[in-house]
Amino acid sequence: MTSTEAAANTLQDHAALWSMGEVRASDVVNAACDALVAGLDTPGLRTLAACTRAEADYDVHDLLPAALDELGLTFYPVGSEARQEAAVRALARRVLAGDLTPREFTFRIHQRHGHELPLAERLAELDDEYDILEYGDRTVDQVDAEVIAEARRLTAHPTVPAEPTDSPS
Question: Which of 23, 50, 70 is the last residue of a domain?
């Protein structure tokens, strides 16, 4: 993967995570800056990257959809299952990168989606398994390994394009 592809993927992940409250707006701006440094360049991306930390909380909501669109990336509609699934996959990539522990991953997924998001149902079940380890014959390492295997499956799973949206909300 080229550095521009990696930067585009990171920006897409940050957009999904921001939309679900998992990262701050300033993190999205930082990802936009990294994308510029990596060689991506569009007017919307430059505008997004130019936001200060103070402006980010107010401006990312309006600037992000256009920046993603110019790059051929997806801004998922608010409340859509596709947006939730994109955030789950982004968190799965963070687990595989070592930025998030398997336990933290399942806890966040279970807390945010319960057992309601089909894509993440197994993760919610694994979070339940962490809670009952002391009563069973499984170990933390065994559950961790299963979570990592699930994260690999999620990141390898093809994504379904979101329905086009005319409004950035």
Answer: 70
Q: What is the pLDDT of residues 89-115, one digit of tens each?
A: 999 999 999 999 999 999 999 999 999
Contact in structure between 17 and 90 (CB atoms under 8 Å) = yes
What is the chain's Cα-based Rg? 17
Cα angle 24, 93, 133 (rounded to 5 degrees) comes to 100
**CA distance linking residue 13 with residue 129, whole number of Å:** 27
Q: Which amino acid is at 19?
A: S
Domain extent, residue 137, equals 81-156
Question: Distance between CA atoms of 36 and 41, rounded to whole angstroms?
Answer: 6
Q: What is the pTM of this model?
A: 0.84
Q: What is the SS3 assignment for 43? A: helix
142 in a domain, yes or no?
Answer: yes
Domain count for the chain: 2
Same domain for 89 and 138: yes
d(Cα 67, Cα 47) in Å, to the nearest integer? 8
Question: Is residue 101 within 8 Å of 114, Cβ to Cβ?
Answer: no
Contacts of 34 (CB under 8 A, 6+ apart): 7, 10, 11
